[in-house]
Structure formats: C-alpha cells, structure tokens
Amino acid sequence: MTGSRGVPSRRRLAHEEVPEWRFPLYSVPRAMIGHATGRRLAGDWRGACAAAGVEVRLDPDRARADHGGEFADALLDDLHHLVPDLVRWHFPRSHFSPDRGALRSLSVVTLSRPGAGPRLAVLGPDWPQEEPPYLVLDLIGEERTVPVPGASFGGHHPWEDRRHLWDSRRVHETRGRWGGSAGRAPLLEPDGTPRAAEDLPAADPGPGADPATRTEWLHVLGRKPEGRAAAIAAGGPWRVPRDLAAVLAGMSPDHLHPLVRAALAPARPVDGPVGPPPWEPPPPVRVDCGGREHGVALRGGRMSGPHTEQEHLRERSLRALGGGEGGCFAVSEAWRLRRGLPPELEAHRAELFERVRHGDTETVLRYLAAGGDPHVRGEEGETLMHRLLLVDHAVVLPPLLAAGADVDAVAPGGATPLYLAVLYRGDIALVRALLAAGARHERIGDRRNGFGPLADFVRERLAAAWHPERSTFRDAGPWTDLLRDLEEPSGGAP
C-alpha cells in the first residue's frame, strides 16, 4: 500500500512477512540522478561525480606517474564506467538514523584494484553528522581498509566482486545477483508487482527450477523455524535486498533508482519519470478559524488561510500587544516556528528539510515557487539559509533573498548561515556570496565554539590540520585571499 505521495507504508504481505526494512527515500534526489546521468553519458566522469555529491581526490595523471601507464589506463576505464549516483544509492547507511538515510561515517567502499598498487575507493563522511553529506573518490592503500578500533560505525565494504552496484557495464547483473532469473526478480512479477501467495512454491521446485523460483523457495523455507536448517543446507536462507523489500512493502518500482528499477521490473513500461518522487506542496489542511472552517495552504510566501495582508498585519499587532493567535494565523506562525503544527503539516515540514539535508536543490526551488514561507525552520531551529551549504547555493540563494529570507538568521545555538558555511567543509564561494548579500561578519559563531569576527575563524581553519587527507580547506589560496580582504584597513565587507 502506498500513500498519495508514493511513500510506502509497512504492511504484512499476504504471501509472507517482509523483513523489517529501512529505505532512504530522499537520500538520492531524482534531479541528482538525472544530472549525474547526463554528465556520465556525455563522457564527463568528473562532472557526474560532482552532480552526485562525490568529491574527486584522485589524479589520473599522478597515478600514471606513480604506478605506470597500465595502471592509469585501467583506472580511467573504471572511472568512465563509474555510476556515482548508484554508488550513493547503495552506500552503507548509518545504524543510528536508518530512516533518514544518513551515510555511514568512516566507511570505506573499495571498488576495484586497477593493478599492482592502491585501490579505487569511495570514502564516507568523517563524522556521523557531517554536512554536507559528501562522499570522496580516491585511491587508497591497504591501511585505509583497517576498521577503526572500537568504532560502532565505518568499516571496510569490498565491492570489487560486486560491480553491479557501481559499474555501468555490469548493472545488468543486478537481478541475477539478487537471486532472479532472466525475466523477473524473486517475489515479483516481471512488471515489478509482488507475486500472489498462491504463486510462490509450496515445495522444493528442484535443482532445475528457474533461479527466481528457486530463490523464492529458499526464502519461504528460511522463514519457517523448522525449515531454517534445511534452507541453509540448500544454499540459503536468502536475505531480501533492501530495494526489493521496499517494493514488497508497497513502494512503486518507479520510485527506485532507474537502474535498480530496470533490474527489479524488466517488463515494466516506462510511461513517465522514474526515480524518487519530487517534493509536492502539502494539500490544504482544514482548521477552525473564528468559527469558520478554512483551508490552510502555502500561498503568498507563508502557510496561510484565505486572509488578506491587512488581516495578517492586524493579527501581528494584536500578538505584539499580548493577544493570542488562533485558527489560520496560529498555523501560519507554527509553520515558521516549528511547534504546534497539525501532524500532517509537521510531516511535510520535516520532509522539506530532510530533502534539503540530502542536497535536493530542486525541492527548495519548488517550495519557493509554490509560495512557501522563506522563514520556515527545521527541527533544529535552522532556516533554509542555514542549509545553503547542502544545496546548489548559486541557484537557491537569489530566490531565497528575493522571497525575503534573512541572510543573518540566527539558529538556537547562535549560528548564522555565514558561520556554518565556514564551519562545515568551508565553501568559499558560498561565503563570498553571503558576504555579497550583506551578511554580517564582525561577530559570528555559536555558544559551543564562541563568537568572534569571521577573520578569526578563517585564520583558525587555515592553521588547523585535523585531517591531513581530508583537511577542512582543500585549497588554502582562496581562503588566504579572503583573509587578506577581511584584514584590509577599510574594514569593509570583501
């Protein structure tokens, strides 16, 4: 069963209980997949990585000099067939926030060994809540595959023999690797519809059965307490892959990554867009407003009922004088201040920020175009301005400013958007853009790290060497230039 927005709801299938599943529905936006695919098909592997939020640290020319031409040629061959958005789709997820789809920090996924030398690998974030949630593509030595002692996260995940998870030449093997046959995946019809209970094998189909039927038998047998030993002896039990479990639980195959959809539903016609569904404005919510029922929805830059600007001004004046708000006006204020919302609107507000957390630029644009309030705050009290570092800020900042967003909005801990742009990974282009938009830089920071001028924080970051391989500022030059501008006697904004 699927809701109106395509989000699956858990249920017990008629033919078998589906194992507990977690699916990061918003962690790889449809637009990200589309942009990355376009660059990959154009032969631009670096552009595909950038579109998928994968930072490239390796240098093929340096690899040629260090490890020889044969190694470099094999490396480039793999890079040109890398599907970075598919890597992000399958990348290990955190056990601490499974429903949010957070990337598992300190994870090392090795993709291939191009020759005698280092391995091609994708590295997870350094910290459990690192933002933005970048992946890193690099060449690593054997020492990087050793787990962190005592850590409950991270780990080495070898994908050298699982190329269907990342190599465009091998993705067609996915269905077979998941126990399927030429025409269908196990537990599904060829079009991706879950199989009826009566169509599953009730007895051992024998070694000559097609692979999907054989897998189904191992699954059915393994789910029975008395049959587990027999399933193990027969080559099982079989573990349902996450994507297949999501479809069995009600998700449309059309909302999977296109390459995964092709594996699970080979006969399903393509009659529309494929990929995780885009953000849609919440439908109007009926509230009692002064004895009359009104529909509250996004309109005119706020969550509002059918009221004029003059009525909103009157309510704000009454509130300033100590009066209370009710009806549509209370919901409008709750949407902005993240408390007291009707449950259905709270779910939409949480979804908005969850999508942004995963770099969904298109969601912010759609939200603003639908009349969304630019001052809306997430569960941590942050505004969309604070989350600019997670999306394409060059595209999002202008409409946010045009809608009236506050470039100096303060989060509960005291952080401003400018401070976060320096604190997390250091995006010099975003810092410059915020300064150009008028962001104050004389006193930034938060309660944990203290407050001070922007120049002090830049100076500290330039001097720090927390992670030699993943330093906060990969290129110190632009930051040195910014520091010089900040220290000019004029004292003006750079």
TrEMBL record:
| UniProt xrefs under SUPFAM superfamilies | Ankyrin repeat (SSF48403)
Show which residues constitute the signal peptide: none
What residue ranges carry the coiled-coil annotation? none
Q: Residue ranges under compositional bias (Low complexity)?
A: 202-212
Region annotation (Disordered) ranges:
174-213
Q: Out of the domains of life, which is the source? A: Bacteria
Name of the molecule in the record: Uncharacterized protein
